[in-house]
Amino acid sequence: MIRALVDFALKSRWLVLGGVVLLTVWGILSFRALPIEAYPDVANNYVQIITQWPGRSAEEIERQVTVPVEIQMAGIPHLTHLRSTTLAGLSSLMLIFDDDSTSDVNREHVMERLGQVSLPANLTPQMGTDWSPVGQIYWYTLESTNPPTT
Known about the structure:
CATH class of the largest domain: Alpha Beta
Helix content: 25-40%
Radius of gyration: 27 Å
CATH superfamily of the largest domain: Multidrug efflux transporter AcrB pore domain
Shape: elongated
Number of domains: 2
Number of strands: 4
Largest sheet: 4 strands, antiparallel
């Protein structure tokens, strides 16, 4: 088997060289199209909705806040998971989207749907901040005065 392959390669040198050139060009083009980042962001696209209602039990918040918000958020384009946590005085929903969507568009859809939710008086759900966990790497810097800079 190997002998036949070597014989074929020796008999048709130009075909083998053409294949090598083609694979080399394909590799170079693929390498140039490869996105390279110092800290690749592998976190999901997500939007967090937080509603505070101090002095209320978790069951009451679940019934009057979390469930209506969940129902309203169901069916948003590119939504893959909807996770909620309800504690005494707090409702938190995490909407996770697929990788084909962008954070800005997802937040717009969530904001449109939040305006349609019917909640008890004086309750305003808020969206969490728009950052990725990888972005927290840039929060801290190390600075030294030893040796002193001139």
